Amino acid sequence: MSKFVRPFGKENQTASPVRAAGCAKCGKNGYAALRVALRLDPAKPAETVFWKKQCVFCGTIARYRGRAADGTEKEFPAFYMPYSNGRGFSVKSRDFYLPADLYTTEDGKADVAKKVRLVAQVARLAEQNPKRSEFSWAEINSSLDKV
Ligand SMILES: [Zn+2]
């Protein structure tokens, strides 16, 4: 009679041969979810626009391979917004957060193209200034016309 060996439990626990993915630059296990925010009013809390996956040791922002608008493969910084139901996240600018009055038209509709443009500006600043987690409206607005 053969002994029944269960496929789970303590006797089957072995360390995974695959190391947890470390930072692409320094190799340390330092990736953390850090927020990128927009502060409209110095007296009020900043609004979280999106989150970034960044190494806390060297400041490297993780990158992922995706597709550009023309279908070619391209690397993007790991900026994302978790879904409110807690299942997964989106990397699309239109799913990131901005206070609605920043992109609402006079007749009360959401100008999504404007929202995406503003978010892209925050993303650009966040990539250029990896050590900063907060940007002011003046910075976003003043650099918009240079795009
Ligand atoms: Zn690092």
Describe the 3D structure.
With 147 residues, the chain is α+β, with helices and mostly antiparallel strands. It has one domain (24-140). Helix content is 17%, strand content 25%. The chain contains 2 helices and 7 strands. The strands form 2 sheets. The protein has a 5-stranded mixed beta sheet with strand order 6-5-2-1-7. Strands 3-4 form a two-stranded antiparallel ribbon. β5 and β6 form a beta hairpin. The longest helix is centred in the C-terminal third of the chain and has 17 residues, at 112-128. It is elongated. The model has no long low-confidence stretch (mean pLDDT 90). Bound molecules: zinc ion. Zinc ion binds at residues 23, 25-26, 28, 30, 55, 57-58, 60.
End-to-end Cα distance: 75 Å
Assembly type: single chain
Q: In the residues, how many domains can be counted?
A: 1
Q: Give the overall pLDDT as a whole number.
A: 90
Instruction: Work out the helix count.
Output: 2
Which ligands does the model contain, each kind named once? Answer: zinc ion
